[in-house]
Amino acid sequence: DTWRYAFEEAIDEVQGVFAQKFKEEIEANSDHEVQLFPYGTLGESADIMEQAQAGILQFVDQSPGFTGSLIPEAQVFFVPYLLPQDTEKLSEFFRSSKAINEMFPELYAQQGLELLVMFPEGEVCMTTQEPVKGPDDLNEVKFRVMTNPLLVESYKAFGATPTPLPWGEVYGALQTGIIQGQENPMFFIESTKMYEVTDVITCAGHNNFTTAVMANQQFFDGLSAEDQEMVQAAMDTAFDHIIDYQSGLHEESIEKIKEAKPDMQVNVLSEEERTPFVEAAATVEETFLEMTGDSGAKILEQLKADLEAVEN
Ligand code: 6CS
C-alpha cells in the first residue's frame, strides 16, 4: 500500500529533507510505500491539514504557526524568547520534553491526529524594507505572520501591524507593498528568495521555528503494533537526521543570500537592542494564558520545567 505524506515546504527544504528520510526508512524496513507531496502540490498548509483529518492523507507536517487556530495550546511556541537558541539544548529539549511527548499528543488526538514528532527548523529572523533596531522601527510596518492569533499578538507587542497570510501570498504581497516585512528561518529566507523583495534581515533571537508531523488517527490506530513502532522509529531516525542536516545551515544560508544580493543587510541585535522585545514577551505570555485557560497554563508550566531540565 501507499502512504501519502504532505508538508508545507519544498522537497529540498527542511520539512522535505525530513520527509525524504522518513520515506527512506519506511521503504527500507517494510513493504509500504510513501508518496511525498511537497508544498504547492495539494494547496496551502490549512488544506493539507484538512486532508489529513479527513484521511485523504495519512501523514502531514504542519507547523504550530498554522495549527494554533485548531489547537490553541500549540500557540505556546510563539511566546517570544521561550525556546533556547543553542541548538544542542534545543534538540535535547524536543527529545525529552514531557509537554511535547506526552501532553501535546492528547490535544492533537482530540482533533483526530496522532502527533508523532515535533522538531526545530532554525532561528526565526525578520526581513523588512528598513533596518529594525527596536520596536519603534516596526511602527507602521505591515508585517506578515502565519495565521495564528498569538503570533498576531506578538507582533502587536513588538510595535508592528501584523497581517496573517498563508505562505503563498507572501512574496507577491511584499513585492506590491501590501506588507513590508515577514519572519522565517534563514534557510527559508534564502530558498524562497525573500531577499529579492526585502532589504534587511534582523535577528532578535525571539524564536526558533517549530514544526510537527502527525498521522491521521484512524489510520494510525489501524496499523499493527509492529508498524506503529516502525513509524515511530523512522520518525526518530528522521529527527536525528534533520538535526545533523541543520548544523551550519543558518550561516551557509546567509552566505548564499550575500552572494545573490551583496547589499542585503544582516543585523544581529545586541543584548541591549533586544531588551524591549524581551519585555514585550511578558504580555504575550499573559495573552497566551488568557486565550488557553487552564489547559494552556499546564502546558506552559510543563514546558518551562522541561526547558529548565535541559538548561541544567
Ligand atoms: O512562513 C511560512 O508560512 C512557512 N515557513 C516555513 C519555514 N515553513 C512552512 C511555512 O509555511
UniProtKB/TrEMBL annotation:
Gene Ontology BP, a term: transmembrane transport
The record's annotation in CDD domains points to: PBP2_TRAP_UehA_TeaA (cd13668)
Q: What is its main location?
A: periplasm
Q: Which residue ranges traverse the bilayer?
A: none
Q: Which Gene3D superfamilies match?
A: Bacterial extracellular solute-binding protein, family 7
Q: Which UniProt keywords apply?
A: Periplasm, Signal, Transport
Q: Where in the cell is it found?
A: Periplasm
InterPro entries with a match to the protein in the record: DctP_fam (IPR018389), TRAP_DctP_sf (IPR038404)
Concerning NCBIfam families, the annotation shows: TRAP_S1
Which family, according to the similarity comment? Answer: Belongs to the bacterial solute-binding protein 7 family.
Its name, as the record gives it, is 2,3-diketo-L-gulonate-binding periplasmic protein YiaO
Gene name as annotated = yiaO_4
